[in-house]
Amino acid sequence: MTRYNSENRLLHGGDYNPDQWLDYPEILAKDLELMQKSKSNTFSIGMFAWSQLEPTEGDYHFEWLDKIMDDIYEMGGNVILATPSGARPAWLSKKYPEVLRTNERREKMLQGGRHNHCFSSPVFREKIGIMNRKLVERYGNHPALYMWHISNEYSGECHCEYCQENFRQWLQKKYPTLKDLNDAWWGPFWSHAYSDWSEIESPSSIGETMVHGHNLDWRRFVTDQTIDFYEHEIKDIRQLTPEIPITTNFMADTHDLIPFQSLDYGKFAKHVDVISWDCYPAWHNDWETTADLASKVGFINDQYRSIKQQPFLIMESTPSGVNWHEVNKVKRPGMHLLSSMQFIAHGSDSNLYFQWRKSRGSSEKFHGAVVDHDNSEDNRVFKEVTRVGEALENIKAVKGSYKKAKVAIIYDWENNWALNDAQGFSNASKRYPQTLQEHYRYFWNHDIAVEVITSEADFSKYELIIGPMMYLMTEDVMKRLSSYVKQGGTFVSTYITGYVNENDLTYLGGWPQPLREMFGIKVTETDTLYPKDRNAVHYADQSFEAKDYCSLFELEGAEVLGTYTEDFYAGKPAITRNKYGQGAAYFIGARTNLDFLEYFYGELAKNKGLENAWVIKGDPDVSVQSRDFEDQSYRFVMNFSEETKEIQVATAGVDLITHTAHPTTLTLAPYEVLLLAEN
Known about the structure:
By secondary structure, the protein is α/β, with parallel strands linked by helices. Among the domains are: 41-247, TIM Barrel (Alpha-Beta Barrel), CATH 3.20.20; 407-608, Rossmann fold; 615-678, Golgi alpha-mannosidase II (Immunoglobulin-like). The chain is 32% helix and 22% strand. Strands 12, 13, 14, 15, 16, 17, 18, 19, 20, 21 and 22 form an eleven-stranded mixed β-sheet that branches. The chain is globular and about 75 Å long. The two termini are 29 Å apart.
C-alpha cells in the first residue's frame, strides 16, 4: 500500500466512464481540462467497460484505456482501476447462457441489467479471471494506479443448479451429518426433515420459505459465495500487485439509509484492504428534518469506519441529485460542501462521485454528475464541486487521522436476518436498523463519538456498549458481554433480546441464564402493541410514551428505574439497572420515543463522563465531530438546518476551509461547516 499511504491529498473525483465517449475525442479532452479546474485528483475507471475492453470473445482493446491512464497520470491524478464483472457483454450471455442468473422461482434470466450473472458459473469465473489477469499484467506497474476496485456493488443471488450444489456442499461443511442439519433446522416441523442432501433446495416462493434456520443459512451462503467470487477475482491481482490496496464498494439500503441488508458486510470487510461505500441520502425530503437524515448518514459512516478500525473511502456520492429515488431533488446551495465535509468528519479520506460526466443515453442520463450535458464549468453544480475540491485541498492535513470513541452500538447482520423472519412480532414495527439509529441519535445530537461494531468486536475498548433488539444472540456473545460488564463496562439492551441461538432456535428453559445473571431479571413475555396502542413508562418522575413492544419480566436482583403505567402490567418494572461485577447492565423493556432516549442516555453520559468537553453549549442541529492524531485534533462543526445557529466551544480557532479566525462563540449560517484545528 505504498502509493496509497504516500498520497497526502484527500481524494476528490469519481466514477469516470470514458468508454462511453470513445467516439468523441473532444469530450475526452474537455474532461481533462475540467478535472483540473474542479480540483479533482482521483478517478475510478472500468467497472462497466467489459464490452469495450473485449467487444467479442478473445478480441481485446486496451489502447483507449492506455491513453486514459497516461493522461490522468500526466495531470497528477490517481486511477482506481476496476474489474468489469459488474455487467457482462452480450456475447458472453449468448455463447454461454449458463452465466445468466436463475431467480428464486427457477426462471433463467435474460441478458441485461447489472449483476445478472451467476457467481458459481465456471465459465463466468474463467472469463473474468482472464480479463482480470490481463488488466493486472498490463497496468499493475502503471504509475497512475492507486487502488483496485473489484466489480461494483456486489449484490443479488442465483438459484441455478451450480448454486444449489454449492449450497449443499456449504451445508455439508457446516453440519457433520444430515441429522445435525435436521436438528438445527427443526426438521420434524411440518415433516421437513431431509433424508438425503440432494433433497435440499434454496428458499423459494414456489417451495420453502418458512424454515427459519434454512433461510438464515441461505443468507450466510450468499454472503460466503459472494466473498468466494470476490476472492476469485482478486487472486491474480493480489499475487502480482501485493502493494496495491483492494476495495469493493459497499452500500446502504432504502431511502431511510439503513445498513445494506443482503450481504454481511461485517464478514466481507475482512477481505478488503480499505472499506469504501456509496452514499446517496435523500436530502431535503418531506418526511424528516435535515438533521434527522444527517444523523442516519453519520451512523452508516461510523459503521464503515468501525468495521476495520481505520479511515474509509466514499467511493460514490452525488454532487446534485440521483435518478432512482422516488423523487429526485437536487441539493440546495451549500448542501454539497456540508454533506461532503460530513463524510470527512466521520472518517472518510475521500469524496468521490457517481458520476463524473452525465451519460448521454440510457437510465443514468439524468443522474447527477460533475459535468452536465452542457459540458460547462459555469453551472451551479460544477462551481460547488470545485468549491469542495478547494476545501479538500485546504484540509488535507486531516488525511489518515482517526476518531476516538468510548461508546459503541452493536449492529449484527445475522440478527437482522433472523429478526426479519421472526413471526411472533409485528412485521411493520420491528425496524431493527432504524431502532439502532434512534439510540445513536442522542450521541449524534450531543457530539459524542460512536463506533458501530459487530458482535465479534473487542468490547473492552468501550466504556458503554448499546445492543438493542439482539434477538439472535449466541452463548459466546452472552459470555463475552457478561465478562465485559463484570470487568467494569456498561451494557444497555432492550426488548426482543436473547430469544434464539445461531441456528434461529429458541433457547429452552426461558430467558438464557447468562442474561438473567447479567441483567438481574427474567423476561417472561413480550407484549406486541397495535399501531394505535400506547402505554407509558414512569421514569425519573416523568411519563414517557411506550409503543410497539413492552417486555414483562421478573426481578432477580435488578434495581427498578421505571415502571409501566397502563394495562394489566401497570406498576410492573419497565426499566432496570443491575450492578454486575464492577459494571452495570441496563434493560429498557419498552420501545419509547426519542424523548426518553434523550433523557436516559443524558444521565448515563453525565454519570460516566462521556460528554464532549470541547462543546460548552451545543445544538442538536449542529453536529461536532472530531478526527485526531496523537498531538492534533480537528473539529468539524456542521449546521444541518435551514436556520442560523450559535454554539459555544472551549477554544477559539482558525477555520481551515476559509482561513477565517473564529472566537469561542460560533455562529453558523444554514448549511455552514467549519473545520477548526486544536493542538
